Amino acid sequence: MSDAGGHPQAAATPTGRPRSPGISIPGFVLKNALRNGRRALLTVLSVAISCALLVTLMTLQRELTVPPESESASFRIIARNKVSLAQPLPARQITTIEKIPGVRQVSPFTYFGGLFRDETVTSWAQFAVDPARFRELILEGKILEGTYEAWVRDRNSCLMGADTMRRYGLRVGDSLRFRGTFYPVDLQLTIAAVYSGTVDDRNCFFHHALLDQLMDDWGMVGTWYLIADSADAVDGVLERVNAAFENTSAEVRAETERAFQLGFISMIGNVKLLFGSISAVVVFTLILVCVSTMSMAIRERFRELAVLKALGFRRRELFAFILAESFGLSMLGAVVGIGGAWLFWSTINLQKLTQGFLVYFEVTPRIMATGGIVAALLGILAAIGPSIAVARTSVVAGLKTLD
User: Is residue 19 part of a domain?
Assistant: First the structure.
């Protein structure tokens, strides 16, 4: 279409506004977003780092407050002293517990807490158990090297987790030395077998009879480890175990393995409050970054937006332009940050990095989706302030604004 002089004219939109033949609306938004390349890059990186930190905090909170659990864990029960976990229980209680209806098997389960070799901190545990009874309690465990029977026969041997074997380069037949911390005795053990397939393949299990011998016929246990006949029988077993020792000198508190793990974690403190507070600070910082960036970007373009108003663009369309720019930068940062966090934690050797403190660190789809939603909401919130400022500014006032 051309005028009387033969010069081309821009086509008109249905609302009567001229449409540029050289650029589309998405291209217009993209050009504005990348106008200041350094600022756009810094904004994306700020959002990416904040999202990666947020995802890491949420994953760490999940790992500390929701311990991994196998299918057979729903059958297992731990009974401890009702007064305190630090108080032992009489070994003679086993004759009463094994007669309780619904109990398939029971074994002593005493935490030794020794230091391996010359370590000042050993992140994996050693437990004294009854090997003959213990096999029925770890149904998911599989023997990789050695034989379970060799461990049962030798009082001075132990059953080691595959993760710890790999970490220290150990082999079946190697001798291990543990310095006592909770107990005034040291352990000298020989590896008889290696297990794998449990939620935590790091621990060491040895004969409770050896601990009794070293402690001069101690006659006590740390806790009792039970397995019920079925998941439906668990509640009844809990009640009967507690009732069996009620009003005795050593009352017990029986709870499921999962409840025991959560109770042990709660001793650390209010982990959820701690990580929730840190996450709130991260989100607040992210809000400041997004809002300040968009405010600066829009303030520099007041004259252009005033021209768009003069050409007939409505307020909601200008808001859509600003929103698309803010949302796009936020989501690009979220993809980089969340994807980078997932890739990093999926490939790194976490056990080596944390010296065995953490076994799993799974960035779940739910956590990634939460991070994405937070970034999306922040992108929307960051566009509200500049949009209100543009809506309140008249065409004349906008044209007077200096670039």
Answer: no
